[in-house]
Amino acid sequence: MHRRRLLWALAAGFAAGVGLASLQLLLWWHITPSVRPALLASLAWGSWGALWLGGGGFLLWELGSFLQTLGRRGRRTQGTFPFLLGALMVAGVALYNRDVLRQLLPPAHRQALAVVAVFALLWAVAWVLARRRRPLQVALLAVWVFGVWWPWWGVGQQGDQQGGVKTPWVWKAEPTPRRALVVVWEGADLAWLLPQVDGGVMPFLQSLWPRGSWGQLRTVSPFSRAASLVTWATGCSPVRHRVVARRAYRISFLSREPVSLLLRGPWPTPHQLPWRLWERAAPPQPEQPTLWEVLPALGVPTALVGWPFPTRPTAAQVAGPEWVHGETPLLEAEWQRAVMEAVGQDARRRTATLRALGVAAEVGVRAVLLAGDGKTQVLIVHLDLPARLRPLWSGSDSGGVLPLTAQFLDGQLARLWQLFSDDQTLLLLLSPYGMAPPSSWDRLLANVGLTGQWPVSPKNSPDGFFFLYGRGVASGVRVRGGRTADLVPTLMYLLDLPVAKSLSGRVLLAAVDERWAANVPLRLVPAYPTPAP
Q: In the CATH scheme, what architecture does the domain 180-246+285-525 have?
């Protein structure tokens, strides 16, 4: 009897693994649907499911039978139970991923996940009705394999409708006389920034704030640092630029291209990739051009400093990330003394704080050199200092490290503006995501001692912010409803450059001065040139 239960449980786990394989491949829409990947994925995930899901189902089955024995019930649990449990799990995972990954998946693939979930629920009802009828159950197992894979096959036959525009487009360069300083304070938000500005900690930003436009930015959900940063840099949603995670995996028997988006469920990532048949890979480059790739193509000299990911060869001046991770970051002696005094005796956080400020200082030195060369027309500076220090010091900052951080950022911004700006210069200050306390459930786990401290983090996708200042920007306006992808089209319009229709974002007209909007036409083009692989 126990062997029979084990065989039923392993078979049910295999069937559930086949269903999860179809769900996982629905998240990797670059894999062309065919029999070979479906068969290989079924074998890999099916065997994985037989061991882990089938083994777990067998233990639950044995426990249920034991409890029935204690209750003096003579009925035996049938083989219906593990298959029913597997079908319900596949349905639940499909619906959960459809909801959670709504901004990272094309609509057709989200619909396919819903179809698999509905099919799994209907199949579970049919399986219960067909108990003790072995021929009918065998037929239902065949229907199961067909039903869970058919949505993947069907959505793949619709073709790739989300990739980059391949039609070449040539722009006759008409360089704009305007300059632009774009500064990213990764991890900052209005809830942290405005008290610092109003409290006089950031005097330079305080002097500009009443004359600019600002607002929150709705970030990418679920949170992904890579997806959030690339979304602002391309003006496209993750569905279009296809950078959805920082980590990537190569599964050679399915595809040569690395994959990133993993199926979410009751398992630790990436252990749902079966049998270690994968290897780490570099994350893919965005399939849409970034701001520093578009601007040089339009005849605008551009420089990029501090971008945390590898970049494609481009006409822009790029200070690569290799020097950012040096061993001896630059930090002036007076700042070192101020940090040491604010940190106190906490050696662990003192080292991390000095390191973070040193990296930001190095980025600032490179930016100052580029700002003063007289050749750069658009300077893009990326700093992750708030993202490093806010989780480290939130809730326990008796020495004032975070106000010191705000003062450091404000002074650096003032220096860059003094070197780089003129009467026509446009300032864009932004953060693609913010920081927020954990959810009530995470706090409960921390309070009962199951987890550690719960500082602020971007886990729940809090909003970022933007601040625009310069000629053409509305004065003293708070813009509502802004998204991360809206920054590139807004910046391009304020630079009097064409805006691509293929962008996911829109021009934030509420941030544009009425006189500028009346005199500068919005020029649209189909798409920016697709970057080379």
A: 3-Layer(aba) Sandwich (3.40)
